[in-house]
Amino acid sequence: MASVAFEHVGKTYPNGYRALVEFDLAIGDGELVVFVGPSGCGKSTLLRLVAGLEQPSSGHLRIGRDIVDDWTPQARNVAMVFQDYALYPTMTVRANLGFPLQMRKLPQAEIRRRVAWATELLALGDLLDRLPKQLSGGQRQRVAMGRALVREPTVFLLDEPLSNLDAQLRTQVRGEIVDLQRRTGTTMIYVTHDQVEAMTMGQRIAVLSRGHLQQSGSPQALYDTPANTFVAGFIGTPPMNLIPSVTLLRAAECAAAAGGHSGMEWLAALTADPDCHTAGIRPEHVAINRDPQAPGLPGTIVQTEYLGHETLVHFSFSGLAHGDTRAIFIARVDGSPCFENGQPASVWIDGKQLSRFDGNGNRTLGGDPDSAPLPTR
Ligand SMILES: Nc1ncnc2c1ncn2[C@@H]1O[C@H](COP(=O)(O)OP(=O)(O)O)[C@@H](O)[C@H]1O
Ligand SMILES: [Mg+2]
């Protein structure tokens, strides 16, 4: 087992594409870190760099104390499991597990010991004599992990390993992977494009966009104090509402013109803050009142999504230019409220829960020391 550190790592592919820019992150020995970001943001490139399948164009990669930039994949002893984990179709589970060790010409007794260990660890005992085609998707996935683990890797990399499984199985195997990591204490980097998966698995999550690290932190830190508008708009279902300050100000003016009052003192401070370009508010930190004259910002309900235990209410502020979709705001309301589309209403926002972002999209209130600024490209 070993720590892994990316030190100002950049990766430019031969065609000139900059897949990673100044990537900095230290992963502790025995730590599980989840990399998450949209497709094409550079997640697989990061894993391939650790595995030694790619070399950094700039910066260094460290495993343990060693800078491994020019080490072969074999010398690193890093194991990687992919989405399309290919098991050898003509070999039994037992032979699949032992194969990487046969290739390394380990003594037969040692091979038997390690295969027995992985069998026990992953509950594969009943499956050892089966062929891959006689296994379910989840069982195949477990064999693929076992085959990687028997090598006793110093670092274990998983690249979207659950994408081929259905939702229920995904949840189960995800739990198994977290448990496995805890029991073996192997340093693990897990990659996914799914923020829900990242939130449920990660002790620590690193969010990427277009080759830049956006923020790394606990699931709660990312949720409560997103470093920038990218993270705010990526984490959470639905994500944080990002409303231009001018929109809130205009809605407040509409309330005043109608003889009402927003009742939200923080609005004055917000609009007086020249650095606050965008206000961020989670859907659960608002209340919607059917009375458009009630304290709050006036507007119209444009859509409701009933989900059983909660309803997502889409709300449009008064005073907007027609078709200004940036001002659609989603509120999370318990149960099944009686709202109709087109109905006027007012929205109350909890100012204590507000995030503020500047013109570049970076958090200006309660900043996270771990976070990097949003790239402006
Ligand atoms: N060999 C390559 N040559 C050129 N561009 C590449 C190569 N491999 C990946 N890319 C590009 O680099 C970016 C990051 O790719 P990748 O790391 O696979 O993203 P992810 O795994 O997050 O979907 C993508 O835009 C991809 O098209
Ligand atoms: Mg990928």
User: Structural class, please?
Assistant: alpha+beta
Low-confidence stretches: 366-377
Instruction: Look at the structure and give the CATH class of the largest domain.
Output: Alpha Beta
Envelope shape = elongated
Task: Measure the end-to-end span.
Answer: 38 Å
Biggest beta-sheet profile: 6 strands, mixed
Give, in order, the helices and strands.
Answer: EEEHEEHEHHHEHEHEEHHEHHEEEEEEE
The CATH architecture of the largest domain can be given as: 3-Layer(aba) Sandwich
Look up the CATH topology of the largest domain.
Rossmann fold
> How many DSSP helices?
11
Query: What share of the residues does DSSP label as strand, in percent?
Result: 25-35%
Question: Could you tell me which ligands this complex binds, including any ions or cofactors?
Answer: adenosine-5'-diphosphate, magnesium ion
Under CATH, the homologous superfamily of the largest domain reads P-loop containing nucleotide triphosphate hydrolases
Strand order of the largest sheet: 6-7-8-3-9-10
Q: How many domains in all?
A: 2
- Overall pLDDT level: 89
> What's the alpha carbon Rg, rounded to whole Å?
25 Å
The count of β-strands is 18
User: Level of helix content?
Assistant: 25-40%
